[in-house]
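Trying the structure run again after the queue cleared.
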Amino acid sequence: MKLSGFHPVALAPIAPVALVALVSVAHAQVDTKAAPDRLVRAAVEGVISQIQSNPETRSGDLAKITAVVQKQFLPYTDFGRTTRLAVGGAWKTATPEQQKTLQEQFTQLLVRSYAVSLSQLRDQNPKFRYQPPQAGSNANDSVVGTRVLNNGDEMLIDYRLTKTADGWKIYDINMMGAWLIEVYRKQFADIVARDGVDGLIKYLTNHNARGAA
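Done. Tokens:
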């Protein structure tokens, strides 16, 4: 199964991605302090449930699907951390205003890309298997592996989470052996080296404008 919307620059993931309506879970009903695997399951199944239960999103209305992602999936993420790590060393040299714009534009790219991926699953019935969380680089880092089964095909997707004051948050996704942050870090570094931080902001802004057109 190929989720063509979820890949670098057309991405999404963060990407990003991966879901089934085994249970309907509204964000307000979920324990934000849940274990990493429970949080990933709630995030994934909550958003796909909403998309599959609404006639407008089931019909493929991308704006409506994007709105669902913003409401149902975004609260489970730390895309601020994703942005900082993807921008790399240039983040420290950026002004506060540049940092704010980078995070806004990169988050917009990730959300829309994830919505594009989900639109491909709106009328399908993929099955998901969640592996027990594995320790990451430290006690505040965890990786949850998933197997996505759809129409006889299988895809492995790993979610990396960080522990925050508000509970575990998804900040990186691995699809087909590539971590989202690593892929974007290389691409962003090339743009910054050539055009500076403002050039990266322009690149992201233009990319988002084309996607919204």
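The beta strands are 127-130, 134-135, 141-150, 153-164, 167-175, 178-179. Worth checking whether this holds up in the mutant runs.
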